[in-house]
Amino acid sequence: MLTKASELNAYDVALENFDTAADALGLDHDTREMIKYPERVLTVSVPVLMDDGHIRRFEAYRVQHSSVRGPAKGGIRYHPQVTLDEVKALATWMTWKCAVVNIPFGGAKGGVTCDPKHMSQHELERLTRRYTSGILPLIGPEQDIPAPDVYTNPQTMAWIMDTYSMTKGYAIPGVVTGKPISLGGSLGRNEATGRGVFYTVQSACEHLHLPLKGAKVVVQGFGNAGSIAAQLLYEAGAKVIAVSDSRACILNRNGLNIPELMHMKALTGHVEGFPESEPIAPADLLALECDILVPAALENTIHAENANSVRAKIVAEAANGPLTPAADRILERKNIFVIPDILCNAGGVTVSYFEWVQDEQHLFWEAQDVYDRLEKVMKNAFRDVLKIHVDKKVSMRIAANMLGISRVAEAVQIRGIYP
Ligand code: GLU
Question: Which CATH superfamily, name and number, covers 192-344?
Fold first, then answer.
């Protein structure tokens, strides 16, 4: 059994989670063979002209895990620790995630092993365009639709959309989601992951009879998902007592002023030194007594060695794969309610779906319309997963995987195999 985070490979975790849920479903061998593994894996070598005049080569990937229920769908990550196995895991999770919220997409993911914090805008643009050229045979609005993920953003999507469109000779906004509004992006997409996290936390609080007003919240990772979730929880009257980013962890037991913190993060790029806060160690952040812990950073941040210290009532997985299977078991024993990633953070891809629909129809919705539809999708999905959790007496993670996997299984069984 895998126990140490340092020994963990996210793809092993994804396969282990699949097997656990497939066993609970009693899924037959043939169906497993057809849906468990990625359909297509592409590795591309991306040479980029750096600002110093030299060429630097980056390794990059696009993995399509499933196109059973519709076009493959998933973000693109720029991070120094990107590996093919990580991208395979993230693509796998996208498949179950899209099925859990019942949107007509399969799963995919892309990644470039690079350190965007040490690259200029020009270098990032050249990297993005050359990477897009590399994965061109795979992507398209009916085939595979990228979106933002860790350290990519609407500007990155604009470059991908432009590069793809220029090769076809006309504008094709539907090739990516998470675009700027001026290129056919959707209102509410940028905040969608955090907003979805918020809706599932609301549902969990309702289920546990825990008032959100006054609830103590800790957020690990203050990027797009974590900061928006913190903001919405703050606006709902929760007390966000601690947050962290890749550089620092800060604490204020009376509650941090989240709008001001977001303002500072936008200006300086980090949360370190925020007035009316004290620095704490990362291990102490996870161990804070709170009602809701939101891991919103990377995979495997809560593992066998630190899961015991968690003292939250709810863990809301805004990140993909923040808990290792060992941590899952520990939290279950401690009776902590986990909102699993493929449910909790599915708001991003749900509004990506809305964006794609709007692009296809050339008809754009108002922000409130997006929020209302997102709330309905997230709360329905939460209800469906909770029902399996209660009826089958399995963890919320197994329940979510069972729901997602069963929908893909049903689709593949009806489609059959060709040739
Ligand atoms: N990167 C996000 C995720 O992991 C969004 C993906 C998308 O919108 O396609 O769910």
Answer: NAD(P)-binding Rossmann-like Domain (3.40.50.720)
Q: What is the pLDDT of residues 256-302, one digit of tens each?
A: 999 999 999 999 999 999 999 999 999 999 999 999 999 999 999 99
Ligand 1 atom with the smallest distance to the CA of 345 is 10
Query: Domain residues of the chain, as ranges?
Result: 39-173, 192-344
Identical fold for domains 39-173 and 192-344, yes or no, is: yes
Please give the Cα distance from 395 to 393 (Å, whole number): 7
* Ligand 1 atom 9: residue of nearest CA: 74
Calpha distance 347→53 (Å, rounded): 41
Residue 362 per-residue DSSP state: T
Q: Going by CATH, does the domain composed of 39-173 fall within 3.40.1010.20?
A: no
pTM of the model: 0.97
Q: Is residue 216 among the annotated active site residues?
A: no
Q: How far is the CA of 342 from the centre of ligand 1 (A)?
A: 10
- Give the tens place of pLDDT for each residue, 171-211: 999 999 999 999 999 999 999 999 999 999 999 999 999 99
C-beta 147 within 6 A of ligand 1: yes
Do residues 107 and 341 touch, judged by C-beta distance below 8 A? no
* Ligand 1 probe mutation, 73, 94, 95, most atoms within 8 A of CB: 94
Torsions phi, psi of 172, nearest 5? -130, 80
